[in-house]
Amino acid sequence: MAEIVYPQGCRPITDDLGPDELVRRLKVLAHTLQGLGQDEGMYQQYIPLALHLADEFFLTHSSKDVQLLIACCIADVLRVYAPEAPYKDQEQVKTIFLFLINQLQGLRDPKNPAFKRYFYLLENLAYVKSFNMCFELEDCQEIFCALFSLMFKIVNIEHSTKVKAFMLDVLCPLITESDVVSNELLNVILINLVEPNKREHKHAFALAKELIVKTSETLEPYIQAFFNHVLILGKEEKSLLIFSKVYELIYELYQCCPSVLLSVLPQLECKLKSAHFQERLSGVALLARMFSEPGSQLAKQYPALWRAFLGRFNDISVPIRIKCVQYCMHFLVHHPDLRKDITETLKLRQHDANEQVRYEVVMAIIATAQRDFQAVAESEDLLHFVKERTLDKKFKIRKEAMSGLAMIYKKFLTEESVPAATEKAVQWIKDKILHGYYMTALEDRLLVERLLNTSLVPYTLQSAVRMKKLYYLMSNVDDNATKAFIELQKHQLAVRRTVAEWIELHRKPPSPSVQKELIAKVLHISTKFLPESVKAQEFLNKFSQHMKQSPELLQGMETILNPNVSCEVCVRTTSNVLKKLGQPVMTNLYYNTVKMLLERVSSVMIDHESLLILVEYVEGSVTGMNTTIAEECGIDTKKAAERGLKLLVMLSFVFPAHFLHEDVLTRLTCMLELDDEAVAPHILAALTFLGKYRPLSEACPALFPRLITLCKAYAEVGSPKQAKNAVRCLFVNVPEQRTQIFTEILETLKATLNPYSEHYRTAIVTLGHIAHNLPDNFPVHIKNIVSRKIVKELLVREGGGATGGAGESWCPEPELPEETRCKLEGLKCMARWLLGLKKDELSAQKTFRMLNAFIVHKGDLLQQNRLSKAEMAHLRLAAGAAMLKICEQKGVGDQFTAEQFYNLSHLMVDEVPQVREAFAAKLHKGLSKGIPNKCLPLDFMGMYALAGREPDKRIRSVIRQFMMADVVRRREYVRNITVGTKVERAVSQLPHILPDYMLVFAVPVLTHDPAFTAYDNVAQLKIIKNCLWFTLEPLITRNDFYCYGFYKSLIERMKVHKDAVNEMDDALNYKLWAVCDLAMSVIWARSTSFELREFPSDARIPTMYFAPQPEDFVNTRVFLPPELQHPGGELGFQPKRVAIAPAQDETRIRKRPRLERENTNDVEPSEASETQIQLPGLEQTPETDIDEMQTKRE
């Protein structure tokens, strides 16, 4: 070995020196080497020294200081001899560089006293790119991987920018000047970009990003090759972590250096269409994130990839569709240019068959509205998607949709300016929310009640502002929403009354009877007013115990339920009560149940203070002195006045206690004195409701004489509407002076009750209402007046000749001659008189005969041909309406004959469409109120069958909605009465309530249809068949308890009876039996289950319309022509098969034909009707035609 020469002043470095001495000598040597320049060929004598320093003894010395100084010396040797290092042996070179890498670990801690030397080592290595000589080694990648790994491992927050720069100076050349970059090295670099390294080693993440940016041109082909390997070839190396993080890696690379992915991103399209779910999901998650990033231009740069991504909204896999929809909020907020595409995809997804997808659609749109209101506000389509989901079959979706719309509406109320689309949407949002009250589920009703108080009319607003919002709401909602608002207030009133009775029981001394009442009330409240009745019952019992133990709690409930409580006190007390029930968390079911109950009983909208303000607003609109309310509501003053008056009437029914203050009543009385014909009826109606709560003679005696004077004047010389309401108002408000006041009014009527008086019509109306309200006070006197003045001098008096409607078949009532209008009021007067009598059967029979004559003679009772067509139409309609009104009252209402019933039914097929529509409305009104005793008998449901041949589609649709509403109402009543202890009694009532018995009355009504002339006329029978299906459709297809056996029995029993009106008329009986056969044919064709199970009620046949045959009578003949006999049935239409599972029901669910699609990863879109609830009376439910579909029975 050559002799080792040391630089001047340096002593020999040998292995026999102690560590301290060795360190001292190495320091001198290191210092000397630092001073040497890179002069070529000058230092050949030191080559043996350089080789000596790389001796294994020094590289593995136990002293760290020795190793560090040796490393510094070697680094300087590499610098001085660059580019030709004195180390030639490959193994030695490898050992040296691994040693240097190991020494660089000292950079980890900048506070280390030796850090300066470590930094010098790094600087030196970077300066001359010392690691580049490793390129000549076979396993250079191993060294590089070790170096890169170390750098990423040691970099930390305490490192200066300079340190990091030198690190990069060391690392970058190893990539940019290398012939190859191995996957192993890529793994070391790229793994720092993804979790968990990204989160746990933020500085390594930053260093890796900077390294990639600096070396992007060199790395690009290697990164592309790597992704080709994975994405296209589907190969991966288990040993390398980045293979499992491919999609994360693409995202991070796109963030830091998009250029390296130019040819990689298009390859993702194949992953979006992969047959493997996980690959598609990963691809979708990645692209959704990348496309939706703020400022991302990816969709514009890669339009094909964007279209492929949009296709995944229709993926067959639910999690993928959910993932797509979840990112929609980011698209809508950050990318206005992509909103159109996203809106189109959401249009399909809001009808998705999967409820979670539909839920996410709603949540995405609502979240967008919360983040960027403008994004949603400008798009009517997005708001319409939410609107549609308010009728979703799942409550959680309906809840979010309704709450989202309410949030938008509230924002509109509180912001001064909103986009035009929002203003347009607000017009239907309030209606849509209130329409939710038509839902049958209790959760929906509770939700609407909550949204009314929190969003539509926020209870947190000051009284004056709150009343303006209420006025605005009620001025701009549609009729259905108005009805829903009234129904909501009525429901809350019923809940308040029931809960008040329950609370009152807690003040009574404990006893078995009180305990029994408490149990009954809890059962009633939990089943009628709260969802999940079993849990609600448990928590209400717990609350009951809580109130018994805590007097403050009981006192609080009494305060909340006090009719005179102010909104502010009610809100504060409700809050205090809830604080005593534990933490307001979702898991505290006790708290949430009582909170639901309190939301229903709390009066936070109206109190005395706010009501007085509202009355002032209404008065300002009525008098025209204050037009600001009308302007704020966006309507004219006249409409604002009308809506305000109607609102007061409704509130007087729900909150009468707040009206019974002198300041409010004084303002109402002032309005009553106004010279406006439209105002008094509303104010009188409101005062009537107040009188029912507490007579005004007691509540406000000071004002009462003035009120009596006004009411008497209206009853005697006011308009008919004013007179009607004045009589009612006096009746309820003067219980002590009724006889005296009404005697005086009757005396006045003697003068005005003649055709020459200008107040003749008013006198007739007043007489009718007095007769109705006080039947026992003046029985003989009124009967004589009715008989002489109404019947003889008005209804059967010769006259007429004036034309109404210029020969037209119909005209509005005000255009009729005055005499005819008086006759119309006369018919109503007779009906009211009979309703008041209740049990005068003889008078009822006479009246029915007269009313029947009006109908039979088409309105021209005396047949003098002096009446115009319009007059006749109005008169027969009024006679029909009077008959319906009388039939609501048991006693007098039971005196009609079957023939009169059939004649009355002919108004359903009257030649004048307005008569048909108005009569059907009256029929529906009579059938829908006060089930079971205060409504029309079930017989009248049979009249709906004649609407099956209604030529006007709109009228037919309206009547169909009436019928369906009446069917639903009766089913709900049956459901309620059959739950409880008195089941036997309830079952006995079923034949008079159950809508399934409609068929028994529809069959004879159709038999007596004047258009049905022959039992074997095929054309006529087809019309009858349509009429039967019109009636049977809601009974068969929308009935969970449908029983084929019951209908079969019903029809078989009808067929062994004769017609009760003309028993011996064979032609009529054949028509009856033909209709029975047709009904059986329809039922057989449209039934999906042929169970012969027991029905809750026996098949009873009413003898009023069906005459019994001898017991041995058998009727097996089929009375239908061969072409109308059902091909699948045998004699009597017995089915060949006895059971077809409901799941095979093709009449209810008609799937679209499946389209041939290129991509099997796509899901078939759902129909809107499959995810949506139909509300009878609100939404147009599709009507199926009897011949439209035939059920398949192979």
UniProtKB/TrEMBL annotation:
Predominant cellular place of this UniProt entry's protein: nucleus
Lineage of producing organism: Eukaryota, Metazoa, Ecdysozoa, Arthropoda, Hexapoda
Region annotated Disordered, chain positions: 1142-1194
SUPFAM superfamilies associated with the record: ARM repeat
A GO BP annotation: cell division
Biological source species: Bombyx mandarina
Localization in the cell: Nucleus
Keyword Cell cycle: yes
Matches recorded under Pfam families: PDS5
Transferase recorded as keyword: no
Keywords, alphabetical: Cell cycle, Cell division, Mitosis, Nucleus
Gene: LOC114250706
GO cellular component, one term: nucleus
Name under which the protein is recorded: Sister chromatid cohesion protein PDS5 homolog B-B isoform X1
